[in-house]
């Protein structure tokens, strides 16, 4: 029933970041708990809402990064000047 | 020689799946969502110097995407609401027909929410942002986000409770088959 239950994606994102973000993750969980328990709505239905919402969302997240975005980023990352065949040489 | 800090670039790439999911929930169309994400990435890289390292990169990207959507929305409104529902279109794998119907009910209920409420609910309930982060992204007060999320949940609860009553009928299976047939 806790909405904090399966926030895998974002939690991972948070953890990849430094310090600040983990504090907000904590407050997130805390708020969700009080939110859920203080609710006058049917908790079954609220749990169902949370599950469906995340299931829909995660279905998209699981599709990963479409190639068009990787291509775009690769293009953006290329130096505009001196863009020759051996310009890539120094890349790690 | 890379123009961007590779760590930052990787973080941006890692945020793309979440940006897409959020964009789909805003725009109601996978194609428009992907265009929004593309525009967001271009803006992000164009303004990368305005991002303060160590601050919340996903929230920064979500803010850019939301602002882009808002300005575009004001220009074109949402001319053709995607009748199939963008989320539904992405639901490719659902072997269990009843689960799929559940999703359909839910998706239709979600579509009935005012955009502000849907957005707040998605940010907090699915993207995993805190109320504070969601408030930053939506440029409103934390209390406003809380009240939008609460109203969204209440409204969805009402809509789904009605659906549930329908589901208790003796003809649930028949109804499911009929509805599923109509959708094929």
TrEMBL record, chain B:
Entry-linked PROSITE patterns:
SIGMA70_ECF
Checking Gene3D superfamilies in the record gives: 1.10.1740.10, Winged helix-like DNA-binding domain superfamily/Winged helix DNA-binding domain (1.10.10.10)
Q: Which SUPFAM superfamilies match?
A: Sigma2 domain of RNA polymerase sigma factors, Sigma3 and sigma4 domains of RNA polymerase sigma factors
Identify the domain of life: Bacteria
Aminoacyl-tRNA synthetase listed as a keyword: no
Sorted alphabetically, the Gene Ontology BP terms of this entry are: DNA-templated transcription initiation
Q: Which residues form the RNA polymerase sigma-70 region domain?
A: 17-78
Keyword terms of this UniProt record: DNA-binding, Sigma factor, Transcription, Transcription regulation
Family membership noted in the UniProt record:
Belongs to the sigma-70 factor family. ECF subfamily.
Q: What is this protein called?
A: RNA polymerase sigma factor
Query: In which organism is this protein found?
Result: Ancylobacter tetraedralis
């Amino acid at each position: 029933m806790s909405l904090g239950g399966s926030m895998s994606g974002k939690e991972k994102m948070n953890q990849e970041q430094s310090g600040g973000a983990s504090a907000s993750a904590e407050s997130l969980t805390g708020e969700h708990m009080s939110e859920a328990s203080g609710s006058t709505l049917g908790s079954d239905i609220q749990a169902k809402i949370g599950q469906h919402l995340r299931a829909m969302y995660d279905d998209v997240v699981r599709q990963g990064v479409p190639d068009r975005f990787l291509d775009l980023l690769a293009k953006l990352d290329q130096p505009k000047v001196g863009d020759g065949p051996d310009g890539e040489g120094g890349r790690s | 020689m890379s123009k961007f800090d590779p760590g930052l670039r990787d973080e941006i790439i890692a945020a793309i799946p979440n940006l897409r999911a959020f964009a789909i929930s805003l725009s109601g169309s996978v194609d428009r969502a992907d265009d929004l994400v593309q525009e967001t990435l271009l803006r992000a890289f164009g303004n990368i110097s305005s991002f303060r390292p160590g601050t919340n990169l996903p929230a920064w990207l979500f803010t850019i995407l939301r602002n882009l959507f808002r300005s575009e929305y004001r220009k074109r409104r949402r001319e053709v609401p995607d009748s199939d529902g963008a989320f539904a279109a992405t639901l490719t794998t659902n072997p269990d027909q009843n689960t799929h119907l559940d999703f359909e009910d839910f998706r239709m209920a979600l579509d009935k929410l005012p955009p502000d409420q849907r957005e707040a609910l998605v940010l907090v309930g699915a993207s995993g942002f805190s109320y504070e982060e969601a408030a930053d992204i939506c440029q409103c007060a934390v209390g406003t986000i809380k009240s939008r999320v609460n109203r969204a949940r209440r409204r969805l609860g009402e809509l789904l409770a009605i659906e549930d009553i329908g589901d208790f009928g003796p003809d649930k299976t028949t109804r499911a088959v009929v509805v599923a047939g109509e959708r094929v």
